[in-house]
Write a structure and sequence with these properties.
4 helices; about 100 residues; mainly alpha
């Protein structure tokens, strides 16, 4: 589940940057509908997976909310990726 969330986090973060590229004028506005729908679906998947993973990993509510908030801030997905990598190493470590 953590691997799936990592993939969703990266996809959502990149889609946010692509949407912002349209706003900045780097990408034509002709693609707004397709990019917007793609980003919307990815964001909903990100939200659901963040809730499922937080429950499975026993995160605090604050950790979950920060992870959810990071989905709305450009480039914050890189911080989430770093955090999830540490979580994955912690989960895989022998106890």
């Amino acid at each position: 589940m953590l691997n799936l969330f990592r993939i969703a986090s990266l996809a959502e973060g990149i889609s946010l940057l692509v949407i912002l590229s349209v706003t900045a004028g780097f990408i034509s506005r002709d693609y707004v509908f397709v990019l917007g729908m793609t980003h919307g679906v990815l964001f909903m998947v990100y939200c659901v997976l963040s809730l499922l993973v937080s429950h499975r990993q026993d995160w605090s509510v604050a950790t979950w909310l920060l992870t959810l908030l990071a989905g709305m801030i450009p480039f914050a997905f890189l911080l989430v990726e770093n955090f999830l990598g540490k979580e994955q190493r912690r989960s895989a470590a022998p106890t």
